[in-house]
Specification:
The complex is a heterotrimer of chains A (about 290), B (about 325) and C (about 350). By secondary structure, chain A is mostly helical. Chain A contains 13 helices and no strands. Chain B has about 325 residues and is of the alpha/beta class. Chain B folds into two domains: about 220 residues, 3-Layer(aba) Sandwich (Rossmann fold), CATH 3.40.50; about 80 residues, no CATH class. Helices cover about 35% and strands about 25% of the residues of chain B. Chain B contains twelve helices and twelve strands. Chain B has an eight-stranded mixed β-sheet, with helices on both faces. In chain B, strands 2-1-4-5 form a four-stranded antiparallel β-sheet, with helices on one face. Chain B is globular and about 65 Å long. The mean pLDDT of chain B is about 85. Chain C has a domain of about 200 residues: Orthogonal Bundle (MetI-like fold), CATH 1.10.3720. The radius of gyration of chain C is 24 Å and the shape is globular. The chains are: A mainly alpha (about 290), B alpha/beta (about 325), C mainly alpha (about 350). Chains in contact: A-C, B-C. The interface between A and C is large, with 45 and 47 residues.
């Protein structure tokens, strides 16, 4: 019985309504992300025409009827680009977080559960990674590899996984001392099974919370990489790229960077609210009412 | 026995407004504490005994709220006092100690800091005087190395020593009433006995009354003169310790006493009270104990019993003992 | 005992820095471009490239190059920048104070604003003030700093003409009221030498960059302060304080605060790291001659000695700051003092 499964058991309509009413910010976050997913899936329906179409006659139009977000230097519809950009952003979030978790979770579990030399080695390795100020390593890795978006995402994921290792390890250290783990071990249950069935579900909450917020931060970091020219290509419809391209003309034409910037802001905000809300919900004190 | 009344609780109701409904933790209780006595409140977890003590000092945390009643202390109703007046009473005239001394003391301040703060709030002492008095307090609670104690942090002491510190802190301003909420539950059995003896001795020295809250009948038997048995937010039996323990009248009290295993009696099974503690949001109608009572009758299901005197200083709330 | 702890941490720091240097060295050397070509510039002939490769050792195996680099490092020689042809050490030294100024001021702003805001939020939980503070803090964390910088430049400089767009100081002011170089920091030097006009000018130029960098950290600090304080206020010993008649202000600001600030101290180390990263963008956008801008340009141009230099400086300062943070924590929290283990 972990916090998660207990919570899931109680999830009837009444309790869910209660949870949602008590955490309006969480609901807001869910709505934002849901809207995001909707935009990504229904983009062709929402956006009239081809956002990549270049039309120099429509250069730098301010926001108006035909172009709700205005047009950029090449006459492209910014609204269309922002909406299609949701696809790229969601892809970025998912790829980065999945890769990070894929490396971070096993290492954290092993380090925390088995301890000893393995733990020491893993800890020293993560120490080296964590010694880099947060932005520095992704930039360095992305600069070293061939300059495309995927490599940029790999760079971010590789810089991030040590955090997950640390977080999970910390929870596992606590969970493995719990009585039910000890009793399982004394009954002769294999380590792998103990880890998967008892330790993991009960230590995963902080990781989940961090991962949901990181879905947003991934977009931020990717945008930052684009800003330096290390992530998306100039023709990609990625919000960070759009801001970078608009850097020169932004002063005179405010809409060229504002809307993609706001899109990033709202998206990261949404994931942050979800993470915050999860933290409140999964807080063991709230459980006992 | 003509003692003066120290604390008189009348018709106290404290409710908790939660998601699932209104929890009627205490639903109209009356209790009298006399001067210079030790009164124990006994009951299972969740029966409302802690809430009672917190209500006296207006420390009930949200979503709890005192809904009705009067609490008479030194000729005044505490429920009508201002916040400032209550602050003067807390720690000054009525003190409280809690279950886990390790978590009840601030980990980043020294013992000395914390106790002198209490002294200076309630008595006009300067730093030096407060320190001297603190040392005296430590002597009173038989802590070794009183001077050293001032500079120690809570985590450096054992549970037993910390509880002595708490008792010292509580009695330092010579209150008339000490409320002790499960003071020995978190301690080893051997330490328990020491702490209880300390409380007993100090009570005599300082003429303080003690309101001792516990679920442990053994603790009650050791130092209480009177006992009040509580069930599901109401008192079921109140009386002198000897009388209640040797000739209990309420079925619940009977059941409780029977659950204590006795040396020398060979049993196959331990006795229990059938059933479970009721839901306090929707308590059973009538007498709250009736679903588990082996002697329940029809009237028990319909009407709540009132507290009736059945002997000298002995009261029961049960339909088996109707008002004359 | 404290001395042993510090010694152990410093030793650990050296090992970690070694790891950092290896990682960075490998990263900067797997880039496909040729450092020799960069050194020579445009229209480098193969002959010239070969010669430079020989002279500067670029054709040696990687681990040999690494050893040579480390050996020189121990002598204080960080190599020569491929782009500027100047010794890396001098480039770094010259730009150090601008970044230091920026970061220190930003840290101060983040802490002085963030902590009281977070505490206030916690003690007035669920009030309108709390809601606004939480909104501000979450915005801080969600807004890309470079975008914020652009917005700030647009609003305060271009539209309202309140603050300068870029630069460290008004060039005319610098010409008329030159600052005597003591520490390298314009603010400190101008202040110390009584150069009011220059002080004012550099301060004004720092407002937007500092805000852009500090806003994110402000969000984090506010949030941690708040959640920490809320948690502490629920502790048993706070109940005890109330039970002994302490008034609310005393309970909150004396008894709760000291406990609540402990996690905040830890987060300051992390915030510092985020700010270091922020310097890459903010210094470039505001044209400040600091390490961040230098690092940014060096990475773009594959100037690997420069990149190594900046990385090592940043990484060591990050580790150092975290060490100081841990020591402060050590000094403030009596519970830790018995067992100085690593985090």
């Amino acid at each position: 019985m972990s916090v998660l499964t207990e919570g899931l058991e109680r999830l009837n309509l009444r309790y869910t309504t209660y949870l949602l009413r008590r955490n309006p910010m969480f609901v807001l976050g869910l709505l934002i992300v849901f809207a995001l997913v909707l935009c990504a899936v229904l983009a062709p329906l929402i956006v009239p025409g081809d956002p990549k179409k270049i039309d120099f006659k429509a250069k730098h139009f301010p926001p108006g009827k035909d172009h709700p977000f205005g047009t950029n230097v090449r006459g492209q519809d910014i609204f269309g680009q922002v909406i299609y950009g949701t696809r790229m952003s969601l892809m970025i979030s998912t790829v980065v977080v999945i890769i990070s978790l894929a490396i971070g979770m096993p290492t954290g579990l092993i380090a925390g559960y088995f301890g000893g030399r393995v733990d020491e080695v893993i800890m020293r390795a993560t120490d080296a990674f964590l010694a880099f100020p947060p932005m520095l390593l992704p930039i360095a890795i992305a600069a070293a590899l061939e300059r495309n978006l995927l490599n940029g995402l790999i760079a971010i994921a590789v810089s991030w996984f040590p955090w997950y290792t640390r977080i999970l390890r910390a929870s596992v250290l606590v969970t493995k001392e719990e009585l039910y783990v000890e009793s399982a071990r004394s009954m002769g249950v294999r380590d792998a099974l103990i880890i998967l069935r008892h330790v993991l579900p009960n230590s995963i909450s902080p990781l989940l919370i961090q991962a949901s917020m990181d879905m947003g931060y991934a977009i931020l970091f990717a945008a930052a990489l684009s800003f330096i020219g290390l992530g998306a290509k100039p023709t990609d419809m990625e919000w960070g790229r759009m801001i970078t391209s608009a850097r020169a003309e932004f002063i005179d034409f405010w809409w060229t960077a504002t809307f993609p910037g706001l899109a990033i802001f709202v998206t990261v905000l949404g994931f942050n609210l979800i993470g915050d809300g999860l933290r409140d919900i999964l807080d063991p004190r709230v459980r006992g009412r | 026995m003509d003692k003066d009344i120290l604390l008189n609780i009348k018709g106290l109701k404290t409710y908790f407004y939660t998601f699932d409904g209104v929890v009627k933790a205490i639903d109209g209780i009356d209790l009298t504490v006399y001067e210079d006595e030790t009164l124990g409140i006994v009951g299972e977890t969740g029966c409302g005994k802690s809430v009672t003590s917190l209500s006296v000092l207006d420390l009930v945390p949200p979503p709890g709220k005192i809904e009705a009643g009067e609490i008479w202390f030194e000729g005044q109703n505490l429920l009508t006092k201002s916040k400032k007046e209550m602050r003067e009473i807390r720690g000054g005239r009525i003190s409280m100690i809690f279950q886990d001394p390790m978590s009840s003391l601030n980990p980043v301040f020294t013992i000395g800091d914390q106790i002198t703060a209490v002294l200076r709030v309630h008595q006009n002492l300067d730093k030096y005087q407060a320190r001297q008095r603190a040392i005296k307090v430590f002597h009173t609670v038989r802590l070794p190395d009183a001077e050293q104690m001032l500079t120690k942090y809570p985590h450096e002491l054992s549970g037993g020593m910390l509880q002595r510190v708490m008792i010292g802190m509580a009695l330092s301003c010579q209150p008339k009433l000490l409320i002790a909420d499960e003071p020995t539950t978190a301690l080893d059995v051997t330490i328990q006995a020491q702490i209880l003896k300390l409380m007993h001795d100090l009570k005599h020295e300082m003429r303080t009354s003690i309101l001792l809250i516990t679920h442990d009948l053994g603790v009650v038997a050791k130092i209480c003169q009177r006992v009040a048995v509580m069930y599901a937010g109401a008192f079921v039996e109140i009386g002198d310790l000897r009388v209640v323990f040797q000739a209990p009248k309420h079925p619940y009290t009977l059941g409780l006493l029977r659950t204590i295993p006795r040396l020398g009696h060979r049993r196959e099974r331990l006795d229990t009270i059938k059933g479970r503690v009721p839901n306090l949001i929707h308590p059973p109608p009538g007498c709250r104990f009736h679903p588990r009572c082996p002697q329940a009758t029809d009237i028990c299901r319909q009407r709540r019993p009132v507290m009736v005197k059945v002997g000298a200083g002995h009261q029961v709330a049960c339909h088996l003992y109707p008002p004359a | 005992m404290l001395v042993r702890y510090i010694a152990r941490r410093l030793l650990l720091m050296i090992f970690v820095l070694l790891g950092v240097s290896v990682i960075t060295f490998v990263l900067t050397h797997i880039v496909p471009s040729s450092p020799a070509a960069m050194w020579i510039g445009d229209r480098a002939t193969q002959e010239q490239i070969d010669r430079v490769n020989e002279e500067m050792g670029f054709n040696k195996p990687l681990h040999v190059q690494y050893f040579l680099y480390m050996r020189n490092l121990l002598r204080g020689d960080l190599g020569v920048s491929l782009r500027t042809k100047q010794p890396v050490r001098e480039e770094l030294a010259r730009r150090f104070s601008a970044t230091f100024e920026l970061i220190t001021l930003s840290m101060l702003v983040a802490v002085i604003t963030g902590v009281p805001l977070g505490i206030f939020s916690a003690t007035h939980k669920d009030s309108w003030g709390d809601r606004i503070a939480r909104l501000v803090s979450i915005s801080g964390v969600s807004l890309p700093s470079f975008f914020l910088a652009m917005l700030l430049q647009l609003m305060f400089s271009s539209n309202w003409h309140l603050l300068p767009l870029q630069g460290r100081i008004d060039s005319e002011v610098l010409a008329d009221f030159p600052i005597t170089q003591i520490t390298g920091s314009y603010l400190i030097d101008a202040l110390v030498t009584g150069n009011g006009i220059a002080f004012r000018s550099s301060l004004i130029h720092l407002i937007l960059p500092v805000f852009a960098i500090a806003f994110t950290s402000l969000g984090i600090v506010t949030r941690i302060s708040r959640s920490s304080m809320v948690e502490i206020l629920n502790e048993d010993y706070i109940r005890t304080a109330h039970a002994y008649g302490m008034s609310r202000p005393v309970v909150e600001y004396k008894y709760a605060l000291k406990n609540a600030l402990l996690p905040v101290i830890t987060i300051l180390g992390l915030s510092y790291g985020y700010m270091l990263g922020g310097t890459f963008f903010i210094e470039s956008m505001f044209d400040l001659p600091g390490l961040g801008r230098f690092g940014y340009t060096s990475i773009i141009r594959n100037d690997f000695p420069a990149v190594m230099g900046v990385t090592l400086v940043y990484a060591s300062s990050f580790i150092l700051v975290n060490l100081i943070v841990d020591m402060i924590y050590f000094a403030v929290d009596p519970r830790i003092r018995l067992e100085p283990t690593e985090a």
